[in-house]
């Protein structure tokens, strides 16, 4: 299927992320293998709608419309709205960071993050794309996917999937499904650990994970059963909030 203009513009926007947040049209053309006139046409449209803005030296950066979209998703997404209070209570109860991540296509992204009493200083806070095959949050999402979708993700993830074979991934997912949760140490950040559960709402097409992140020594010393109970209570609270929103 031919790539649409919309898909190309979204691909251009995907370039604008840390550590390189400013791009010239020539650099975009080189990175995307598009012609320079094509890039100028797309960039002109993105500037016109506020998703990009012109900066110094002929560069472009993300525009204010991106900030506006962030506001709208924080105040309009039923999942984020429904998760806010239960996750704040979870963070207060455990003293750990409470994290919610969802999958979108071939990306797993943190969509909500409540800080605990001692913030974990994690690298993958709200808005950050997580590694697909590492960490408790990502593994829980993968465990909730149908086998065919999981296989496709692995086949199409290129270098990101190079460190784990399909057989090893499938075995890991099967084990997670049996035990119902994932626990990892140092998978994303040295010295940090994560404990997570899958969170799904089929009616809303939500495949997500809900987790706690803390210092490795702190999380390892806590009663895991109690922490899992707290996570499950939080998940029930989010489900209830979503049901209330659906019935409103």
TrEMBL record:
Domain named IclR-ED is located at 65-244
| Keyword set, alphabetical order | DNA-binding, Transcription, Transcription regulation
Q: Which InterPro entries match?
A: GAF-like_dom_sf (IPR029016), HTH_MetabolicPath_Reg (IPR050707), Tscrpt_reg_IclR_C (IPR014757), Tscrpt_reg_IclR_N (IPR005471), WH-like_DNA-bd_sf (IPR036388), WH_DNA-bd_sf (IPR036390)
Which Pfam families does the record cross-reference, listed alphabetically?
HTH_IclR (PF09339), IclR_C (PF01614)
Question: Which residue ranges traverse the bilayer?
Answer: none
Taxonomically, which superkingdom?
A: Bacteria
**Which PROSITE patterns has this protein been placed in?**
HTH_ICLR, ICLR_ED
Example of a GO MF term: DNA binding
A GO BP entry: negative regulation of DNA-templated transcription
Which stretches make up the HTH iclR-type domain?
A: 3-64
Q: What is this protein called?
A: DNA-binding transcriptional activator MhpR
Q: Provide the species name.
A: Bordetella pseudohinzii
């Amino acid at each position: 299927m031919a790539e649409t203009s919309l898909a190309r513009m979204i691909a251009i926007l995907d370039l604008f992320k840390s550590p390189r947040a400013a791009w010239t049209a020539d650099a975009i053309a080189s990175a995307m293998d598009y012609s320079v006139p094509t890039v100028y046409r797309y960039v002109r449209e993105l500037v016109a709608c506020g998703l990009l803005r012109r900066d110094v030296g002929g560069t472009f950066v993300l525009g204010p419309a991106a900030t506006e979209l962030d506001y709208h998703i924080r105040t309009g997404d039923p999942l984020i709205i429904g998760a806010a209070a239960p996750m704040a209570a979870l963070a207060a109860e455990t003293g750990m960071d409470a994290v919610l991540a969802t999958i979108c296509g071939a990306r797993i992204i943190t969509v909500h993050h409540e800080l605990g009493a001692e913030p974990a200083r994690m690298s993958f806070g709200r808005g950050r794309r997580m590694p697909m095959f590492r960490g408790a949050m990502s593994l829980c999402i993968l465990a909730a996917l149908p086998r065919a979708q999981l296989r496709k993700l692995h086949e199409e993830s290129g270098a990101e999937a190079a460190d784990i074979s399909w057989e090893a991934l499938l075995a890991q997912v099967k084990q997670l499904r049996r035990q119902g949760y994932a626990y990892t140490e140092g998978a994303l950040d040295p010295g940090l650990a994560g404990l997570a559960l899958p969170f799904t709402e089929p009616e809303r097409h939500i495949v997500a994970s809900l987790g706690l992140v803390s210092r490795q020594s702190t999380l390892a010393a806590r009663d895991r059963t109690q922490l899992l109970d707290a996570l499950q209570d939080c998940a029930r609270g989010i489900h209830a909030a979503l049901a209330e929103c659906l019935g409103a």
